[in-house]
Write a sequence for this structure.
């Protein structure tokens, strides 16, 4: 099953991994004594080897994360709006409640608590125009030959870029890149351009060495590094860093919904450091005892940047230092901004590689869709919904940056509804951004859900729901009606475009899961369009009957491309 059972590190240490009957990680001796999951395979308990236990609680219907509790160390309640945006985090340990607000494109426009207030203003292209922190206001400027998305002035600081769109100078530093476009050197302008940081990479672009203020670090693997001649071993559970051990002892990470290090504890379970963040990743408190902090990424403190793999991110300016090499969704204008961080919704999205933001609900749906198609091609029908749900959860775990954030952004909605996976798949889509290659995959899975043969089901509820999914998938931020009609019309024709537009409106007005079992949507479409809708569906059905094999190949190609983009073998 391609599960790692043990790993031998360069220092000779052997890390062992144990699994339960559902093939889920259950323990790592010396690190985690026990991991428990609910019936939906979402993690509910982590019992660490130092005696500390973390419990995670989820909403019964949406499966969104409700609470993270580690007695006397963590106690955080999460609240969401109808689109899955986090609107509140109540931290009962530090006695603070943060509140968040968003615009119509789900971009964060305000954040605050008893101790801070932040506001953000954007242009239509997803670029920040102004940021207010307390009484201080910083303005952003763009253009001057660098493209429309790269900020050229932030406050009093001028930003200069090279022809490749790489930041090469700001008020404090000069940035130098190698031939492969990787940041290799940072010079401090106020000290006669003294080199304060150097970076070295392997042939795959992975950072393998860092020299920062004379301290040399070697990155042998994700599990093992040597910093200033001190060896450190890192322990991961489902790609989530949970502990580290060095000459100073062993320590454990307690993370939040994004995988950010919230609390660090020692072998006695005592608090070492608590870290509080502003929404875009800069520190409000802490961040000194550990370098892996915001979303689990390494913070290079001497230059003020997070290392995200493909690029570096500045949490003070809220943008990456280089343009993204991947555009995750060409139909979403916000995703065309190649410098912005996570579509300007840092509480909902993560960016595991520095290449494109990942919404965890997208991963869940992709995984469930793959399992639907696997069952059809193997058995001629989809007959094991539990396996569909489980693979959706597994796929999310495998490809996301952290297990702890699986349900935080509403990605597990499709596990919750009692009416079947078909109804819930679409429920998880509303208000999210899904890359175009997912439309075909998800739509086909929906067709399979409603019958044994895609040729037969394409005319009935399967096609209706497939089109509906595409409509809602294309509705950025939950927009409905005319905003989704264009892309569908282009793909399928005017009649189907109208159906998609109406379907999205129906879903928005009647709710998600309940309206997508096929009946209410079908009735509504029939009532509104009658024979034209029926004829449009039949025409589309006839054309698809003759093109199923190319479509199947296209689906497989989409899946392969998705796996390749996320470095999945």
């Amino acid at each position: 099953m391609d599960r790692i059972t043990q790993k031998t590190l360069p220092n000779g240490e052997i890390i062992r991994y144990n699994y339960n009957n559902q093939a889920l990680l259950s323990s790592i001796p010396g690190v985690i004594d026990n991991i428990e999951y609910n019936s939906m395979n979402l993690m509910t308990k982590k019992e660490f080897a130092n005696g500390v236990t973390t419990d995670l609680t989820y909403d019964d219907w949406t499966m969104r994360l409700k609470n993270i509790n580690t007695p006397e160390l963590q106690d955080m309640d999460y609240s969401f709006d109808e689109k899955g945006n986090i609107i509140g985090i109540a931290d009962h340990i530090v006695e603070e409640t943060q509140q968040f607000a968003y615009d119509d494109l789900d971009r964060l426009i305000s954040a605050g608590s008893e101790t801070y207030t932040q506001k953000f203003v954007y242009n239509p292209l997803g670029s920040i125009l102004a940021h207010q922190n307390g009484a201080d206001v910083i303005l952003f400027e763009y253009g001057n030959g660098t493209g429309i998305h790269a900020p050229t002035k932030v406050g009093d600081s001028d930003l200069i870029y090279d022809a490749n769109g790489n930041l090469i100078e700001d008020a404090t530093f000069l940035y130098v890149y190698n031939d492969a476009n990787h940041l290799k050197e940072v010079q401090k302008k106020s000290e006669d351009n003294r080199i304060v940081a150097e970076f070295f990479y392997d042939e795959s672009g992975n950072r393998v060495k860092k020299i920062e203020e004379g301290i040399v670090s070697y990155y042998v693997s994700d599990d093992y590094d040597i910093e200033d001649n001190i060896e450190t071993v890192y322990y991961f559970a489902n790609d989530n860093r949970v502990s580290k051990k060095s000459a100073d002892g062993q320590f454990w990470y307690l993370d939040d919904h994004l995988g950010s290090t919230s609390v660090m504890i020692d072998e006695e379970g005592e608090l070492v450091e608590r870290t509080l963040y502003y929404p875009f990743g800069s520190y409000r408190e802490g961040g000194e005892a550990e370098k892996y902090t915001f979303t689990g990424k390494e913070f290079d403190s001497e230059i003020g940047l997070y290392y995200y793999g493909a690029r570096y991110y500045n949490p003070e300016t809220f943008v990456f230092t280089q343009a993204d090499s991947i555009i995750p969704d060409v139909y979403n204008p916000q995703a065309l901004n190649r410098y912005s961080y996570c579509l300007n919704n840092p509480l909902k999205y993560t960016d595991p590689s520095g290449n494109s933001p990942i919404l965890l609900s997208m991963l869940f749906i992709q995984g469930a869709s793959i399992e639907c198609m696997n069952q059809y091609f193997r058995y001629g029908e989809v007959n094991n919904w539990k396996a569909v749900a489980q693979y959706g959860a597994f796929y999310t775990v495998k490809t996301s940056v952290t297990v702890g954030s699986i349900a935080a952004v509403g990605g597990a909605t499709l596990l919750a509804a009692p009416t079947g996976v078909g109804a819930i798949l679409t429920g998880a889509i509303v208000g999210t951004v899904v890359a175009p290659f997912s439309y075909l995959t998800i739509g086909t899975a929906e067709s399979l859900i409603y019958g044994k043969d895609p040729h037969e089901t394409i005319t009935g509820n399967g096609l209706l729901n497939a089109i509906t999914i595409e409509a809602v998938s294309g509705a950025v931020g939950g927009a409905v009606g005319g905003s989704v009609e264009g892309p569908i019309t282009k793909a399928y024709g005017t009649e189907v475009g109208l159906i998609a537009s109406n379907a999205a409106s129906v879903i928005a007005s009647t709710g998600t899961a309940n309206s997508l079992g096929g009946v209410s949507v079908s009735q509504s479409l029939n009532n509104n369009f009658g024979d034209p809708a029926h004829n449009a569906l039949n025409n589309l059905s006839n054309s698809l009957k003759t093109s199923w094999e190319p479509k199947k190949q296209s689906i497989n190609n989409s899946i392969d491309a998705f796996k390749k983009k996320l470095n999945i073998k």
Notes: The chain has a mean pLDDT of 75. The longest strand covers residues 194-201. Residues 6-344 form a domain with the RHS repeat-associated core fold (CATH 2.180.10.10).
